[in-house]
Give the backbone structure.
Amino acid sequence: MRRSFGRWFVNTFWYHYKWHVLIGLLSAALVAWMLADILSKVPPDFTYAVVAESYANEETFRELTAVFAERHGDADGNGKERYFPQVIAFDETSPNNYVNAQRLQTFFFQPELLLYIFTSFDIMYYEDGLFEDLAALGYAAPPDTPWAADVTLAPLLARAGLGEPCYLAIRALYGEDKTDEAKLRFHALSFDFLDMLLSAP
């Protein structure tokens, strides 16, 4: 006697393969969600890093970000404005400092993240040629670290309560980066951000 498909499915296929099916469906859903997230993500008009020794978050830099956003608007012409900082807060007593150091390393692989504000040379990663020589371009910088402009007295940073001292570095462009339109735009915006910090009341 021929069994019905429904009975075969429940008693045989589902009994033996239900976990395979469920795992497959969950995997497909996860891949679909990740693809949708990647495809729907709007690239930033500008983003910058803040590496601090005290507690800080995106809200701390709301005024600073808003002033720069108003200055440039839709910088990439995609119809949307996205300006935000990426903040890492080190703390001597925090168990997350190792994770923070690893996260800072990943920043250097983000093509749009060229500008870094930091409060100590002890927490800021550096290697020769990584950053622009800002002293050679006329910006005030400590003699032994010409890549770090001194922005301690910038009113916008003072109001953010980041503390003293404060420095700013801009990643240098090399090779193909110098012909990449998006990287050139972020690079120019980074210098304009520095100029804004030094001139804004």
